[in-house]
Write a structure and sequence with these properties.
Largest sheet: none
Helix content: over 70%
CATH topology: Alpha-lytic protease prodomain-like
Number of strands: 0
Number of helices: 7
Structural class: mainly alpha
Radius of gyration: 18 Å
Number of domains: 1
Strand content: under 5%
Shape: globular
CATH architecture: Up-down Bundle
Order of helices and strands: HHHHHHH
């Protein structure tokens, strides 16, 4: 959920050597992320794992990111900026929700099911590594294309963190490893969302000034 993941703008057609291939990869990435969002969200509620729910929200954010990229592939900057603002507000809302749930769970939550956490975290890791592998060919493209690849790579690191949380829960019999990882992911979501919101507002203002100049 790093800010670099979420800030990327959609590459313009003129910047992409093979737009059709890039678009196809984005569609596959969107489908994988949407599917893993459903799997992790269900498993998170079933197992009582807040870090799985937080990771599911990350998958949802990425799916939305790829969807926006496809929808506004050739749109004006103002529309891309508005779409980014919508995503930023959603990310920050999810971050607040997860933090609130973590605080509530300190006093009222039970211990999550570690085996479920571990299995689903490994599934998520395989999914993210697969997406990162598909995007690897575009890693040396422009800054925007590179950031999409870095996003998938960083998400894989998040999956490893959830798996370590599962080991921590299994080893201690306590919920705190799960809550710590979930809280860290929520803070990252809040930070990234705020960064995206600031950038999008700046782009809207720049576009507005540019329009008035003409």
């Amino acid at each position: 959920m790093s800010a670099h993941c979420c800030e990327h703008e959609t590459p313009k057609p003129a910047q992409i050597a093979n737009l059709t291939r890039y678009r196809r990869v984005l569609w596959i990435a969107l489908a994988v992320n949407a599917a893993m969002f459903a799997v992790e969200l269900s498993a998170g509620f079933t197992s009582g794992s807040l870090s799985l729910i937080a990771d599911a929200i990350d998958f949802a954010g990425d799916a939305l990111n790829y969807g926006v990229s496809l929808a506004v592939l050739a749109s004006a900057m103002a529309w891309r900026a508005r779409a980014a603002m919508l995503k930023a507000v959603s990310m920050m809302g999810f971050g607040v929700y997860v933090l609130g749930q973590a605080i509530w769970s300190i006093w009222n939550g039970g211990t999550p099911d570690a085996p479920t956490m571990g299995v689903v975290a490994l599934m998520a890791l395989v999914a993210n590594v697969g997406v990162a592998w598909m995007l690897y060919a575009f890693r040396e493209g422009d800054a925007n294309m590179r950031s999409v690849w870095l996003c998938s790579r960083n998400d894989a690191i998040g999956n490893v963190a959830v798996f370590l949380a599962a080991l921590g829960v299994f080893g201690t019999g306590k919920a705190w490893p799960d809550l710590i990882v979930a809280s860290l992911m929520a803070v990252l979501a809040l930070h990234a969302g705020w960064q995206v919101l600031r950038q999008a507002r700046g782009e809207l203002q720049a576009d507005d000034h540019h329009g008035h100049a003409h």
